[in-house]
């Protein structure tokens, strides 16, 4: 991989790493799992980056790779995937600390979201990130109407979980 491609990847990843942290938080329950999943998603993004053509926004592409990695790993109840070494170059990437001491309401919301299935979690995540239904549908590979219907059903489900 060329040096300019590496710099572009590191820059994009550093700029958008919070979206990966949020996905990790949705699919993990403790700090070690979070770090492991963050690392695996980063590796999968790195491996796939040479094929990123820019047809969509970097964030849309990264969401798709990150969500697919998280869903695949946790459906299989497996915490690792086959990876390739990239220790042959030095990468200067500063990982921001992620604050686990969130407000109580956010913890309750995440607790409720953890009770949803994988696709529902992904949909809620993108909805909370203010993604429009067109982008949600494109990322998840479903129709826009289906995304809207699913989101309305999920809202009802979350209301029942949070207010039994």
Task: Summarize the helices and strands and which ones pair or pack.
Elements: H1 3-27, H2 31-48, H3 58-75, H4 104-114, H5 118-128, H6 133-140, H7 144-162
Task: Describe what you observe in this structure.
This protein is mostly helical and 164 residues long. The chain folds into 2 domains: 1-101, RNA polymerase sigma factor, region 2, helix turn helix motif (Rna Polymerase Sigma Factor, Chain: A, Orthogonal Bundle); 102-164, Arc Repressor Mutant, subunit A, CATH 1.10.10. It is built from 7 helices and no strands. It starts with a helix and ends with a helix. Residues 108-158 form the RNA polymerase sigma factor 70 region 4 type domain. Belongs to the sigma-70 factor family. ECF subfamily.
Q: Which characteristics define this entry?
A:
164 residues; globular; 0% strand; 2 domains; mainly alpha; 67% helix; Arc Repressor Mutant, subunit A; Rna Polymerase Sigma Factor, Chain: A
Low-confidence stretches: none
Separate helix tally: 7
Q: What about the largest sheet?
A: none
The value of Rg in angstroms is 16 Å
Under the CATH scheme, the architecture of the largest domain is Orthogonal Bundle
Q: Give the helices and strands as they follow along the chain.
A: HHHHHHH
CATH topology of the largest domain: Rna Polymerase Sigma Factor, Chain: A
Structural class: mainly alpha
Say what oligomer this is. single chain
| CATH 4th-level superfamily of the largest domain | RNA polymerase sigma factor, region 2, helix turn helix motif
Mean pLDDT: 81
Shape: globular
The CATH class of the largest domain is Mainly Alpha
- Ends: how far apart? 53 Å
Beta strand count: 0
Strand percentage lies at under 5%
Q: Percent range for helical residues?
A: 55-70%
Number of domains: 2
């Amino acid at each position: 991989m060329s040096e300019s491609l590496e710099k572009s990847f590191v820059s994009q990843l550093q700029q958008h790493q919070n979206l990966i942290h949020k996905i990790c938080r949705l699919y993990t329950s403790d700090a070690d799992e979070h770090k492991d999943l963050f690392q695996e998603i980063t590796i999968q993004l790195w491996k796939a980056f040479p094929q990123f053509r820019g047809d969509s926004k970097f964030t849309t592409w990264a969401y798709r790779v990150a969500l697919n990695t998280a869903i695949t790993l946790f459906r299989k109840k497996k915490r690792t995937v086959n990876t390739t070494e990239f220790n042959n170059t030095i990468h200067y990437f500063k990982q921001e600390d992620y604050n686990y001491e969130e407000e109580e309401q956010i913890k309750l919301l995440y607790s409720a979201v953890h009770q949803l299935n994988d696709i529902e979690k992904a949909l809620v995540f993108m909805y909370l990130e203010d993604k429009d239904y067109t982008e949600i549908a494109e990322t998840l590979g479903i129709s826009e109407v289906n995304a809207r219907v699913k989101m309305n059903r999920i809202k009802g489900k979350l209301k029942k979980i949070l207010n039994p």
